[in-house]
Automatic annotation (TrEMBL):
Signal sequence bounds: none
Family matches, as PANTHER family: LIPASE 2, SGNH HYDROLASE-TYPE ESTERASE DOMAIN-CONTAINING PROTEIN
Organism of origin: Nocardia rhizosphaerihabitans
Top-rank lineage group of the source organism: Bacteria
Protein name (Swiss-Prot/TrEMBL): Lipase 2
CDD domains referenced in this protein's UniProt entry, alphabetically: SEST_like (cd01823)
InterPro entries noted in UniProt: SEST-like, SGNH_hydro, SGNH_hydro_sf
Source organism phylogeny: Bacteria, Bacillati, Actinomycetota, Actinomycetes, Mycobacteriales
SGNH hydrolase-type esterase domain sequence ranges: 32-271
Length: 282
């Protein structure tokens, strides 16, 4: 070996010993916790290993967010999950969602609360049933039947929501926790019978119930050291009354295949991922 080349090789070896190459940082551990608005039932590509009853999609916003950020995703969201299922098993093959948390977790998204007391399901089914045949949109039969029932339920379950969010900080003390609100399901005014078969009065009633739930999630996020992410405001104008090209939420009779009634469609899941990513980046 010629002396200049030999000297160069020796120099490289010495530099390598003195300044070893930086070890690649491990990927950010991201845990997605949530109900059907997170799990995205109906979208194609079921998530591998997902319990069948959870109907978790590989096209939901946690998967889209992980793909965009490079985070290492553990998605434990499950359709019909309530706050109680954070600490108790929902099904035999769906353990408590908080079991996925650890001190290694760095990011958590949490979107739960709409199934406490069967809030969303009872309101949607009952309000639609009470408006059958009410094409003229007369009055507000759902509001007249239920009154403050749904608001009272939110108030009753809010302490449990707060306790659950606070528990995340104990189980994942090194994580940034983002509480994700629910998107705008209904328009800010008017109605669109029969696409959404509710009178204008009952659309306002159900819309206000959802806003109360989001307000409770925001309060409990702020009270327990988490960040609240508003999905509702960016979704105004993309509600279930809009046309297929505009809406992020499907109406009771979806206008496209692989979509679930009164749930985010593929565009809604992507929009949620985009909003969360922008908040995290900021």
């Amino acid at each position: 070996m010629e002396r200049p080349l030999f000297a160069a090789v020796v120099a490289q070896l010495v530099l390598g010993l003195l300044f070893p190459a930086a070890v690649s940082a491990p990927p950010v551990s991201y845990v997605a916790i949530g109900d059907s608005y997170t799990a995205a039932p109906g979208l194609l590509d079921p998530a591998p290993g997902s319990p069948p009853l959870c109907t978790r999609s590989a096209q939901n916003y946690p998967h889209r967010l992980a793909a965009a950020t490079g985070w290492e995703l553990t998605d434990v969201s499950c359709a019909s999950a309530a706050t109680a299922h954070m600490s108790t098993a929902q099904y035999v093959d769906q353990p408590a969602q908080f079991d996925a948390l650890s001190p290694l977790t760095r990011v958590v998204t949490y979107q739960v609360g709409g199934n406490d007391g069967n809030l969303f399901q009872t309101m949607v089914l009952s309000c639609i049933s009470l408006n059958l045949g009410n094409a003229a949109g007369v009055g507000a039969p759902c509001r007249d039947t239920w009154g403050s029932r749904f608001s009272d339920d939110i108030a009753a379950y809010e302490p449990a929501i707060g306790a659950a969010i606070g528990r995340i900080g104990t189980l994942a003390p090194n994580a940034r926790v983002y509480v994700v609100g629910y998107p705008a399901v209904l328009p800010e005014s008017g109605s669109c019978y029969p696409q959404v078969p509710l009178s204008a009065g009952d659309i306002a009633y159900a819309r206000d119930v959802e806003k109360q739930l989001n307000a409770a999630l925001r309060r409990q996020a702020e009270a327990n050291g988490a960040s609240y992410i508003d999905i509702y405001t960016p979704g105004i104008g993309h509600d279930a009354c809009r046309d297929l090209a505009t809406r992020w939420i499907e109406p009771p009779v979806p206008g496209q295949p692989n979509a679930t009634p009164v749930h985010p469609n593929a565009a809604g899941q992507q929009a949620t991922a985009d909003v969360i990513r922008a908040v995290v980046a900021a």
